[in-house]
Design brief:
Helices cover 35% and strands 17% of the residues. The chain is built from 11 helices and 8 strands. Strand 5, helix 7 and strand 6 form a beta-alpha-beta unit. By secondary structure, the chain is an alpha/beta fold. The radius of gyration is 18 Å and the shape is globular. It has an 8-stranded parallel β-sheet, with helices on both faces. It has a single domain, classed as Arginase, Chain A.
Length: 312
């Protein structure tokens, strides 16, 4: 699919119901203010802003049976699932503007459902400082934005695990995690048990971002639906302060750009989440502007000037 024919749909999901800090509900508007739609249009894309999904308010309550705001989280994710699936069925590329990362349950379950319906293989790149593989038994906070990968892999409350009607929504083999650097001990064991491929920051430090991305993208073909779930805390907080759960030591600007450019080079990007942007913690919207910059690279804007010649 060439850029000129590609339809892209922006879907705002203004909630921080799964997070431990309020403010991510303002993320969609910050991305719009930072010029996301115009940047994509200038890349030759047909951009439709679907506006914001309307869902329940954040009650800001304590956990119940290990989960905070489970009814509200379930409702938001059902709504996300429905809208993302509709856009995929319509032949468009959905970009979910979060909101916190619990929304990945609805988004990715919709992508997985679409792949089952169309016979496509799925590859999810989970770009994040956190593995998000907690369960109620593993996390004291009960914040569901720390649980979406576990839920997608079938481990979590029925209300979340069954979204999309297929349990588990995805296989652990279909997801690759990149940039991880903050994992609870029990969560680490669980990730290893499930066999998820993780390229943590130690691996990136030792092997470099190019080799990391070559491995993460290995095995893709024309029948692969590539989904990127970008948690803005994937980035080093020096360049991206506007997140609720900063963890030092993430990818720098050039590493992040190369990551996006190598994804773009595959030509297979078919859906995207941008989550955990918290304008209340940002500095003059710089994190939103950086996110827009990176999304431009995801859709093919490249700094490459040097002519690449065939070595043969």
């Amino acid at each position: 699919m060439s850029n000129t024919s590609m339809g892209v749909s922006l879907i705002g999901v203004p909630t921080d119901v799964g997070a431990g800090v309020r403010g991510a509900r303002m993320g969609p508007e910050a991305l719009r203010v930072a010029g996301l739609a115009l940047a994509l249009q200038q890349s030759g894309l047909d951009v439709r802003d679907c506006g914001n999904i309307r869902g329940p308010a954040n009650p800001w309550q304590e956990p119940v049976d290990g989960y905070r705001h489970l009814p509200e989280v379930a409702q938001w994710n059902e709504l996300v699932h429905k809208v993302v699936h509709f856009e995929l069925q319509s032949g468009r590329l959905p970009i979910m503007l979060g909101g916190d990362h619990c929304l990945g349950i609805g988004s990715i379950s919709a992508v997985a459902r679409h792949c089952r319906e169309t016979g496509k293989k799925l590859r999810v790149l989970w770009l994040d400082a956190h593995a998000d593989f907690n369960t109620a038994a593993l996390t004291p906070s009960g914040n569901i934005h720390g649980m979406p990968v576990a839920c997608l892999c079938g481990h979590g409350p029925r209300e979340l695990v069954e979204i999309g009607g297929h349990v588990p929504a995805i296989s652990p083999r279909e997801i690759v995690q990149i940039g991880i650097r903050s994992v609870d001990a029990g969560e680490k064991r669980f990730v290893h048990e499930m066999g998820i491929e993780v390229f943590d920051m130690r691996f990136i430090d030792e092997m470099g971002i190019r080799h990391t991305m070559e491995m993460a993208l290995d095995g893709l073909d024309a029948n692969t639906h590539l989904h990127v779930s970008l948690d803005v805390d994937f980035l080093d907080p020096v360049i991206a302060p506007g997140v609720g759960t900063t963890v030092r030591g993430g990818p720098n600007y050039r590493e992040a750009q190369l990551c996006m450019e190598m994804i773009a080079d595959t030509g297979l990007l078919a859906s995207l989440d941008i989550v955990e942007l918290n304008p209340a913690l940002d500095v003059r919207n710089q994190t939103a502007e950086l996110a827009v910059d990176l999304v431009e690279s995801l859709f093919g804007k490249s700094t490459l000037m040097r002519q690449v010649t065939d070595a043969t």
